[in-house]
Amino acid sequence: MPGVHWGKVLRVACGALVALQLWPTTAGATSRIKDLANIEGVRQNQLVGYGLVVGLNGTGDTLNNIPFTKQSLQAMLERMGVNIRGATIRTGNVAAVMVTGNLPPFGTQGTRMDVTVSALGDSKNLQGGTLLVTPLLGADGNVYAVAQGSVTINGFQAEGAAASITRGVPTVGRIANGAIIEREIEFALNRLPNVRLALRNADFTTAKRIAAAVNDFLGVKSAEPIDPSTVQLQIPPEFKGNVVAFLTEIEQLQVEPDLGAKIIIDERSGIIVMGRDVRVATVAVAQGNLTVSISESPQVSQPAPFSRGRTVVTPRSNVTVSEDGKKFAVVKDGVSLQQLVDGLNGLGIGPRDLIGILQAIKAAGAIQADIEVM
């Protein structure tokens, strides 16, 4: 062909082939250390408190049935200078509630946090209510925050004389930024000589890979896996007194996590989740449905006119048994997850039957994975 320089074409083709061979390939999905582990000590703390919600439109607690609501209302009014001891209180606008929230890590005095309000008595609806000042206590009994504000709910309830409808849960509400932090939890992060990473999913291989990634980044042996769920980091000299900067650099490193083969089964909803490393040995699988049908067609027997007989009912039952059988299918040794799913789908097996088949294969010792039933 005129005008074509074959030597140049050959050099371009060889260069493209070398480029394809040198192009990096990813063996698996990588994640940041920030998404794989938590910093030990940097965590939330749960708070709880007991309070009163007022301003309800007749949907509060029945004071005669809920004594603690009545006692709380009396104590609150007495603190306000109102003495109602011995008086009869009839109101449906007050409800006793439990207030819960999570104190964020490094929460400082004066900052706000969200709280959840849940009815404790027989209140029907918290819509339109206002939570009065409620101290929130930690596990040590100290008050760490104080909550107050208007309750917002997602559910609602409407009823008439002969019918009612309820959507969501109207007895649980939320107050955005409804609590003010009053006490701080001391945690001197920058003074720590070492930091420990707590893996969210414990695994020996993942812990080792995290330590290797940190050591490669720093150029010195600073990280060491202690157990499957913990990696200890020694603070390098250049980051002494500035642990935050050190963690900022570390948490962005990419690591490929490794988890054991596991199958999660939720029998109530029929959900099945299988990991990519699930493997099956050679096994034959057959599945059939056995259906038993029983139909009743009773026959009425009446006596002749003017006779002394009586009308009787003679039962007649028709019982049929049918079996929808499937052929045996052989699952070969070491098949992948995709091949296993394709093979079982080829048998026309639904999720419910698949749960029983997976458990039977595990019982036969032919599946290399842990089965966890929720």
TrEMBL record:
Single GO molecular function: structural molecule activity
Which InterPro entries does the protein's record reference? Flag_FlgI (IPR001782)
**Secreted as a keyword?**
no
* One biological process term in Gene Ontology: bacterial-type flagellum-dependent cell motility
Coiled coil, from the record: none
Query: What keywords does the record list, in alphabetical order?
Result: Bacterial flagellum, Cell projection, Cilium, Flagellum, Periplasm, Signal
Q: Name one GO cellular component term.
A: bacterial-type flagellum basal body, distal rod, P ring
Under the subunit heading, UniProt states: The basal body constitutes a major portion of the flagellar organelle and consists of four rings (L,P,S, and M) mounted on a central rod.
Database matches in NCBIfam families: PRK05303.1
Family assignment? Belongs to the FlgI family.
Function in brief? Assembles around the rod to form the L-ring and probably protects the motor/basal body from shearing forces during rotation.
Protein name per UniProt: Flagellar P-ring protein
